[in-house]
From TrEMBL:
HAMAP family, A to Z: tRNA_Ile_lys_synt (MF_01161)
Native species: Mangrovibacterium marinum
Role this protein plays: Ligates lysine onto the cytidine present at position 34 of the AUA codon-specific tRNA(Ile) that contains the anticodon CAU, in an ATP-dependent manner. Cytidine is converted to lysidine, thus changing the amino acid specificity of the tRNA from methionine to isoleucine.
Reaction catalyzed: cytidine(34) in tRNA(Ile2) + L-lysine + ATP = lysidine(34) in tRNA(Ile2) + AMP + diphosphate + H(+)
Main location: cytoplasm
An example Gene Ontology CC term for this record: cytoplasm
Annotated Lysidine-tRNA(Ile) synthetase C-terminal domain residues: 365-437
Cell compartment(s), UniProt: Cytoplasm
Gene Ontology biological-process entries: tRNA modification
EC identifiers of the protein: 6.3.4.19
The keyword ATP-binding appears for this protein: yes
Binding site for ATP: 26-31
Protein name per Swiss-Prot or TrEMBL: tRNA(Ile)-lysidine synthase
Keywords, comma-separated and alphabetical: ATP-binding, Cytoplasm, Ligase, Nucleotide-binding, tRNA processing
């Protein structure tokens, strides 16, 4: 087993001899075998154990078992207890999902705290097959059908080459102690139904089912690599990265074939679901403005592109500026300079600098996001114009409009920041004092 273990680590490039690892150990046969094998490697490692408090004395007994074993072997140990049922109830998720979320969040926190390189888990070949079938039942693509990945970011799974049968045999040969988790026998969990009922049924059809399924997963894993390489080439010709957003060319999206599958692969990394893709495809032929949301991103139909931006909390904040204010840093970096209008005064031609007749301003000034239905009188015009119409004239994209800040005096627009001041507050021959407002940089345009 040790030779296969080290060969698999090397072939899959999981980690180097000098890397430091957190090893997740539950106390079951799988994780105890993983721990035993790690004891024979040159790597620095520690053990992390989770007590989910789900099985009363049994859970606590596993914790005591791990503590005793690590103390006897001189292994550094970290233990964390969770109220898993309470977390599942608060989040509205299953006990299985709650335990998974809790343990991986803590493992990563511990790894970063220790400044270790990787987290090693004891997933093996049978786990991979079970995951394939779970993903198949839910609906998945090539990546899902390839099961568990040997390396995913900082998580490595160096036992994926071994079957459960091989692991149990190694534990017996080495008289390795371990604890049996009784929840693994309960058919209330989806994975247990697959493990104890579905896979044995497949084996009645073909005794080599597990071995063949693992081979299929390996083939699909390689296929997924080739698929992602091709997808990367396609994406490079369709999207353009700009500060704060990504543009996907609509005409090129329309030309994709097979369109639905490729668009799913393009937008799935940003959290969009398969069921949203037909609606996004339909929006390619619609007018501008249609929006789609994932938990982390927003996709907006513009004139000739789909615009992808990262979601931020709705900014309904208002920022007030007193007459004696000389600078602000939030939400924009701005300076305020009051000066007499002398014969030497010259208007600034910089769009990030605005000059106003100080006597026409009502303090405090207000800085906030624009709202639909608002009007102003653009410099040089005699009539009011809707802000939304002004934005159309300026050919601003939807994300650009949403990034804008508006400066108000009373209830009147003073300045569409970075674009146009209101004619009612301009400097005239009668102006005696000037308020000059300057933007520090253009970075605000991409926030």
């Amino acid at each position: 087993m040790l030779d296969k273990f080290t060969t698999y680590i090397r072939d899959e490039k999981l980690f180097a001899d000098t890397d430091k690892l957190v090893v997740a150990v539950s106390g079951g046969a799988d994780s105890m075998v993983l721990l035993k094998l790690f004891q024979q490697l040159p790597n620095t490692f520690c053990v992390a154990h989770c007590n989910f408090k789900l099985r009363g004395a049994e859970s606590d007994g596993e914790e005591v078992f791990i503590r005793d074993y690590c103390a006897e072997q001189g292994i550094e140990l970290f233990v964390q207890q969770f109220d898993t049922r309470e977390y599942a109830q608060l989040e509205g998720i299953s006990i299985e999902m709650a335990a998974r979320d809790l343990r991986y969040a803590w493992f990563e926190e511990l790894r970063l705290q220790l400044q270790y390189d990787y987290l090693a888990t004891a997933h093996h070949r049978d786990d991979l097959i079970e995951t394939m079938l779970i993903n198949l039942s839910r609906g998945t693509g090539i990546r899902g059908l390839s099961g568990i990945q040997a390396k995913n970011g900082a998580v490595v799974r160096p036992l994926l080459f071994a079957s459960r049968e091989e692991i149990l045999a190694f534990a017996a040969q080495n008289e390795l102690p371990y604890k049996h988790d009784s929840s693994n026998d309960e058919l209330v969990y989806q994975r247990n139904i697959i493990r104890h009922q579905l896979i044995p049924l497949f084996e009645t059809l073909n005794p080599s089912f597990r071995k063949n399924a693992a081979k299929t997963a390996a083939i699909l894993k390689d296929t997924a690599v080739l698929y992602q390489q091709k997808l990367g080439e396609i994406a490079a010709g369709i999207k353009e990265e700009e500060p704060g957003l990504t543009r996907f060319n609509i005409e090129k999206l329309k030309a994709l074939h097979p369109q639905q599958s490729l668009m799913f692969e393009l937008f799935h990394p940003f959290g969009f679901k398969a069921e949203q893709i037909p609606e996004i495809i339909a929006a390619l032929e619609a007018g501008a403005g249609k929006s789609f949301f994932s938990k982390t991103h927003r996709l907006v139909k513009d004139r000739d592109a789909l615009l992808l931006t990262t979601l931020k909390p709705d900014d309904a904040q208002r920022f007030y500026i007193d007459s004696n204010c000389r600078a602000i840093a939030d939400p924009l970096q701005m300076t305020f300079e009051q000066m007499a209008k002398s014969s030497a005064f010259r208007f600034s031609t910089n769009p990030l600098v605005a000059d106003f007749d100080l006597s026409k301003l009502q303090f405090p000034l207000l800085l906030k996001k624009w709202e639909q239905g608002e009007y102003f009188r653009p410099l040089g015009m005699q009539n009011l114009k809707k802000l939304s119409d002004f934005f159309i004239d300026q050919k601003l994209s939807i994300p650009e409009k949403e990034a804008l800040w508006i400066l108000y005096s009373g209830k009147k627009v003073v300045w569409v920041v970075g674009h146009r001041i209101d004619d009612r507050f301009k400097i005239t021959n009668d102006t005696q004092e000037v308020l000059r407002i300057s933007m520090v940089s253009e970075s605000w345009k991409h926030e």
